[in-house]
């Protein structure tokens, strides 16, 4: 009885073998995942090797130019400060093209603009009439002064005749010495009045002439600051809505400089009249001769720089004021 029960509890040998299908499925999935990971990671490894190669090349280049770079190691940001010098230069700095002289044409007195003959960008010549102010009041004063001048001339002519007549009468003992003195003094007073009248006439005529404004140089109109009908005067009233203090700004575009700020550590490389090479950033393939024309007498303590102005020799239409340019300070 007991033997039969034990046999019933035994597991058949065929049933003891565990199924292998699930095990191989797991192995296949794991292998697929590993294969996909290898395929994905391989391009990144290649890119890293290329980056490492580029870094090595860059390190090699930086070592080869280490001597030049050390000369400008104290320079702040590249666009405004020193960069590595080329073979024939000791220093390279970026700056801005400026007009050597910018002239703002201003009236000599309070007046109203009557006519403007130029606009922004027009070329002007020395002595060309560019603005006319209303001269009605000053012409009236001129006519008044002219009348006073003619009266003074007539008075002088009358007193000269009177003095000559009295002088002739005194020689014949008809008139007294006192009459001669009175005539002489009257003539002197009228001559003084004539001189004053002549001065008033000249002043009125000067004001009329000042109403016609001429260009002082050969150049180009940079700005037109007023329009016909506006009031202008030499200096402002002090308020924001006061009359304009200038009519227009003109400059000679054939007289250009490059204004740059040089670090104090590089000042020993620059001297007055030192030759330079100027390259505008807008046309980097073009170069112009230049020389150091001005070294500021005072430094900017906050920035640790000194302002240098480089005169450009024979500028052309490609050089525009306020655009940036690169300046190479050449070796002596």
Termini distance? 123 Å
What is the CATH class name of the largest domain?
A: Mainly Beta
Give the CATH architecture of the largest domain.
Answer: Beta Barrel
Domain count, please report it.
Answer: 4
Put simply, the count of helices is 6
Average pLDDT metric: 81
Stretches where pLDDT is under 50 for at least 5 consecutive residues are 55-84
- What radius of gyration results from the CA coordinates? 46 Å
Order of helices and strands: HHHHEEEEEHHEEEEEEEEE
Number of strands: 14
CATH superfamily of the largest domain: Efflux pump adaptor protein, beta barrel domain
Q: Which range best describes the helical content: under 10%, 10-25%, 25-40%, 40-55%, 55-70% or over 70%?
A: 25-40%
Overall 3D geometry? elongated
